Amino acid sequence: MATWPPGEAGAPFPQGPYLGLRVYYENAASYFQVGIGPGKVRRRGTRAREFHSTPIELTGYQLTVFNEWFETTLLHGTLPFTWVNMLTGEEATYRFKEAVRPEFTLVSPAKNFATSPNESGGEVQRHYTGTIDLELLP
């Protein structure tokens, strides 16, 4: 099973805890209207899925490594991976919510963000922010 962070030791990735972490659960109930009388509510299953959504900041080099990891190692986000649970600090298994690739926004075109040692020439690096939406697996 793949692990977070992707890449080599030369491409340090944030480990958390992340400011702005949002934890939410799917609706575990089904609501439906009947012909006569009040509507019915039923439980969908025995466990509601738990989701963690967190902002993340990456350099251009880290974004390249992340994209390769997402596409190749996780087969476009369809495979699970291990990471530290953002709430408990224990090892946990995650997968990307609905296998959707996170979107990243360029926030710094090359100011105040040094490149990692693996990048060519030690130039100043672009800086990106995005949000990753993950499902915590049982």
Structure notes:
There is one protein chain. With 138 residues, the chain is mostly beta strands. It has 1 helix and 9 strands, in the order βββββαββββ. The strands form 2 sheets. Strands 1, 2, 5, 6, 7, 8 and 9 form a 7-stranded mixed sheet that branches. It is elongated, with a radius of gyration of 19 Å. Residues 111-120 have low confidence and may be disordered.
Care to give the gist of this entry?
The protein is 10% helix and 36% strand.
Sum up the structure in keywords:
9 strands, two-stranded antiparallel ribbon, elongated, 138 residues, 1 helix, mainly beta
The total beta strand count reads 9
Number of helices: 1
**First-to-last CA distance:** 15 Å
- Describe the sheet with the most strands: 7 strands, mixed
Beta-strand percentage?
35-45%
Average pLDDT reading = 79
Helix proportion = 10-25%
Structural class designation: mainly beta
Q: So what's the overall shape?
A: elongated
> Low-confidence runs (pLDDT<50, min 5 residues)?
111-120
The value of Rg in angstroms is 19 Å
N-to-C SSE string, H for helix and E for strand: EEEEEHEEEE
How would the blueprint of this fold be written?
Layout: E1 2-3, E2 22-25, E3 29-32, E4 40-43, E5 50-59, H1 60-73, E6 81-84, E7 91-96, E8 104-108, E9 127-137
Parallel strand pairs: 1-6
Antiparallel strand pairs: 2-5, 3-4, 5-9, 6-7, 7-9, 8-9
